[in-house]
């Protein structure tokens, strides 16, 4: 090879190297410009999409496993504007099937996607499955049509529907005071309100998870499963709940009451068997809440509306007096009909004196004077320490959202007067919710042990059912005291031939008529009628608390709440499979006809 | 002489060409096989990916269907529906006066529904080998001395 040829080759090599280096530098520069990073980020949009997957909200079942709250499929209907070919057909179908405005849908469907316009436009959400079936039928019909020549078959291409879950309550209003509701119309920011939906909102919701769904089939992988929300099994028995709500509605109508509540509680473990309050909402239509519950109507009066309970409270005063050793059931008291304290005079309900009575008779005749004497003799420290031990100065912490309480006036505070020691003893001047009364009185029916009221029996977490253990809050009184007060109340009801008696069953119970405070003193015409009773007395399986607010047929609890209790418990024992003491228990031999 | 020898042992030009072409073709075939395998594997991977996606979609649909069926069952068995059916059959709730109770010795009523299995208590795995075989002689001896365990021979002596 000649020297000149060699030089030419070197020149070409040099030029090629320079060009390669320049290209390399240019490649490096282009990849690191702002435009390149923008292009890269835009490219990532086409790699896939990041989506937040919301787990199914946990279901709620009653004590026998029947569904109270679950989920059902609903659809969102939208326009995929890249695929729209016949806007008028889409508008016509959307208008006729979904009831949407024709011109509005047509306007959306004719919009060119891009340049600031969306590619996907939501038309309507929460469309039912039957409407979607109609759309599918129309779509299938259009696709099956044969066309001739230039004729174009109608098409709803571009009208899309996507399924998602929606909270559903198959029982409607039943037990809605307990379940509360979930604002399912807000798909990303829904919340549970009141009852279980509020108290267990976090657990029921589960944890939403952000997942990346790749479009590139090479990078596709199984989406990590999102753990569903925790499901709840309740202590509530649906049949008893239905009967309780029906009984309450009938009682309110019969007695001409403004409202009321019934609570059925198992004193042995604190489980709530049924709980009904007068105003109920169908959680499937929770947007009616504002209309049904104008301020300050509580969602569940049984746990959030306090009132002066009146004479039902006497069972607690008597239990405290017995437990502190001040009296025993046979202690005598001379009732003169009046008791003066702090410059005020306390009278009995009939303004009469009942003379020489024992403690059972004090309860039987519901003597205010006797109770005032007991609380005064106990002294404020002993009396109020019992009330505090019964948890009457705080919430019960029942596992339902919306619980409320009224602070108790205590000695030493500015609003407490000496006369309160007397009036509190018979349930006046003290404001309590039914659930506070139920928990406290439950200790009298459970050997002195006070159980935390609860509605959840077990939780299903990741497919495993975990039972919730009953909680003993404390033992405010001795077991012997609980037995004594139960016996006294059984005797007093039977001796009195009360309207609350239930044939065949020994029931311990007490009526209550609470006067209602007004800005001008206590009302002489309006009262709160109550009854608390538990049975079978030997081994209590239920405690029923009834509150009727301002009954109009009679102001007395003995004439309103007591007969309601008797009627209610007659049905309750059948539903709870509780045989009477002896009389109706069939001998096996009789059953087989021998 | 030397030139003659080189010429005598040198490969024929056509043979060298064939060897080069053969080597090139071999490389091409290897690359083609690798490419084919790669295409095959990537095709299978893509198909599997799509299948996973479809199965996930099916799974989501089945879950929704399951929820729907549960809700439908709940509605059919709701108190409202059952009451209407009972009314249509002229049935009414049992009253306290009509209830008869039969004593069944040994019968224990069911304790609520079991909608899911209870938690399993994880038992500590029991050691397969006795401590005598897993610890050294000195450790074993010190443990025995500390615990004051008597040996079978001691018991016999007593």
Mind explaining what this structure looks like?
- The complex is a heterodimer of chains A (594) and B (158).
- Chain A is α+β, with helices and mostly antiparallel strands and 594 residues long.
- In chain A, a hairpin with a 4-residue loop joins strand 10 (259-266) and strand 11.
- In chain A, helix 12 packs parallel to helix 14 (368-378) and helix 12 (314-323) crosses helix 15 (380-389).
- Chain A has 2 domains: 52-143 and 160-234, Penicillin-binding protein 2a (Domain 2); 238-288 and 298-575, 3-Layer(aba) Sandwich (Beta-lactamase).
- The mean pLDDT of chain A is 91.
- Helix content of chain B is 65%, strand content 1%.
- By secondary structure, chain B is mainly α.
- The radius of gyration of chain B is 43 Å and the shape is elongated.
- At the A-B interface, strand 3, strand 5, helix 9, strand 17 and strand 18 of A face helix 2, helix 3 and strand 1 of B.
Biggest protein-protein contact in the assembly = A-B, 58 and 45 residues
Strand content of chain A: 15-25%
Number of domains of chain A: 2
Computed structural class of chain A: alpha+beta
Mean of the pLDDT scores of chain B? 82
**CA distance, first residue to last residue of chain B:** 111 Å
Helical stretch tally of chain A = 20
Per DSSP, the total helix count of chain B is 6
**Taking all residues together, what is the mean pLDDT of chain A?**
91
The strand count of chain B comes to: 1
- Beta-strand residue percentage of chain B: under 5%
- Low-confidence stretches of chain B are 151-158
Could you name the ranges of chain A where pLDDT drops below 50 across 5 or more consecutive residues? none
Q: What about the largest sheet of chain A? A: 7 strands, mixed
Alpha-carbon Rg of chain A, integer: 36 Å
CATH superfamily of the largest domain in chain A: DD-peptidase/beta-lactamase superfamily
């Amino acid at each position: 090879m000649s020297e000149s040829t060699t030089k030419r080759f070197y020149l070409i090599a040099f030029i090629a190297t320079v060009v390669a280096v320049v290209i390399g530098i240019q490649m490096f520069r282009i990849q690191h410009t702002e435009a390149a990073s923008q292009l890269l980020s835009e490219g990532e949009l086409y790699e896939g999409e990041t989506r937040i997957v919301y787990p199914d909200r946990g279901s709620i079942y009653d004590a026998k496993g029947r569904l109270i709250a679950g989920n059902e499929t609903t659809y969102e209907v939208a326009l995929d504007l890249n695929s729209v070919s016949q806007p008028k057909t889409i508008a016509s179908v959307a208008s006729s099937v979904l009831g949407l405005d024709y011109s509005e849908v047509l306007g959306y469907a004719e919009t060119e996607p891009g340049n600031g316009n969306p590619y996907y436009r939501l038309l309507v959400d929460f469309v039912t499955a039957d409407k979607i079936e109609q759309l599918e039928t129309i779509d299938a019909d259009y696709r099956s049509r044969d066309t001739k020549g230039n004729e174009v078959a109608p098409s709803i291409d571009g009208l899309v529907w996507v399924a998602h879950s929606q909270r559903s309550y198959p029982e409607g209003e039943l037990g809605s005071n307990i379940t509360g509701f979930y604002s399912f119309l807000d798909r990303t920011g829904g919340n549970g309100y009141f009852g279980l939906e509020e108290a267990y909102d976090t657990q029921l919701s589960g944890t939403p998870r952000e997942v990346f769904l790749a479009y590139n089939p090479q990078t596709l992988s199984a989406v990590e499963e999102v753990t569903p929300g925790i499901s709840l099994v309740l202590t509530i028995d649906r049949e008893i709940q239905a009967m309780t709500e029906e009984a309450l509605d009938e009682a309110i109508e019969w007695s001409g009451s403004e409202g009321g509540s019934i609570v059925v509680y198992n004193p042995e473990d604190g489980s709530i068997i049924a709980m009904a309050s007068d105003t109920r909402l169908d959680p499937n239509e929770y947007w009616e809440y504002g209309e049904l519950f104008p301020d300050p109507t509580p969602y569940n009066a049984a746990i959030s509306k306090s009132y002066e309970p009146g004479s039902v409270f006497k069972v607690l005063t008597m239990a405290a007096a017995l437990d502190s050793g001040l009296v025993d059931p046979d202690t005598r008291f001379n009732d003169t009909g009046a008791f003066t304290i702090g410059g005020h005079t306390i009278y009995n309900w009939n303004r009469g004196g009942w003379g020489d009575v024992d403690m059972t008779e004090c309860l039987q005749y519901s003597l205010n004077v006797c109770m005032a004497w007991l609380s005064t003799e106990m002294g404020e420290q002993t009396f109020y320490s019992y009330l505090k031990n019964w948890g009457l100065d705080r919430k019960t912490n029942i596992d339902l959202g919306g619980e409320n309480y009224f602070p108790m006036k205590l000695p030493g505070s500015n609003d407490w007067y000496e006369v309160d020691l007397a009036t509190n003893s018979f349930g006046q001047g003290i404001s309590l919710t039914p659930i506070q009364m139920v928990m406290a009185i439950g200790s009298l029916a459970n050997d002195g042990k006070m159980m935390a009221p609860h509605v959840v029996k077990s939780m299903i977490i990741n497919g495993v059912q975990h039972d919730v253990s009953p909680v003993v809050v404390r033992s405010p009184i001795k077991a012997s005291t609980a037995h004594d007060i139960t016996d006294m109340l059984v005797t007093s009801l039977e001796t009195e031939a009360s309207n609350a008696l239930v044939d065949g069953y020994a029931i311990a119970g007490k009526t209550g008529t609470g006067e209602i405070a007004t800005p001008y003193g206590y009302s002489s015409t309006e009262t709160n009628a109550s009854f608390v009773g538990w049975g079978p007395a030997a081994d209590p399986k239920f405690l029923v608390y009834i509150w009727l607010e301002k009954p109009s047929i009679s102001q007395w609890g003995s004439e309103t709440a007591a007969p309601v209790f008797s009627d209610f418990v007659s049905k309750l024992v059948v539903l709870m499979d509780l045989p009477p003491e002896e009389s109706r228990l069939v001998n096996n031999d009789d059953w087989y006809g021998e | 002489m030397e030139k003659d020898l080189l010429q005598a042992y040198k490969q024929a030009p056509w043979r060298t060409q064939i060897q080069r072409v053969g080597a090139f073709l071999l490389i091409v075939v290897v690359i083609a096989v690798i490419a084919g395998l790669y295409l095959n594997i990537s095709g299978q991977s893509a198909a599997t990916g799509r299948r996973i996606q479809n199965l996930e979609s099916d799974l989501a649909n089945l879950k929704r269907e399951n929820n729907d069926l549960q809700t439908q069952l709940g509605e059919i068995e709701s108190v409202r529906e059952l009451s209407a059916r009972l009314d249509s059959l002229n049935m009414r709730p049992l009253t306290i006066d009509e209830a008869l109770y039969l004593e069944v010795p040994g019968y224990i009523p069911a304790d609520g529904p079991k909608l899911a299995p209870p938690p399993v208590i994880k038992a500590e795995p029991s050691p397969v080998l006795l401590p005598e075989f897993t610890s050294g002689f000195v450790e074993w001896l010190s443990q025995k001395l500390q615990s004051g365990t008597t040996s079978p021979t001691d018991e016999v002596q007593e």
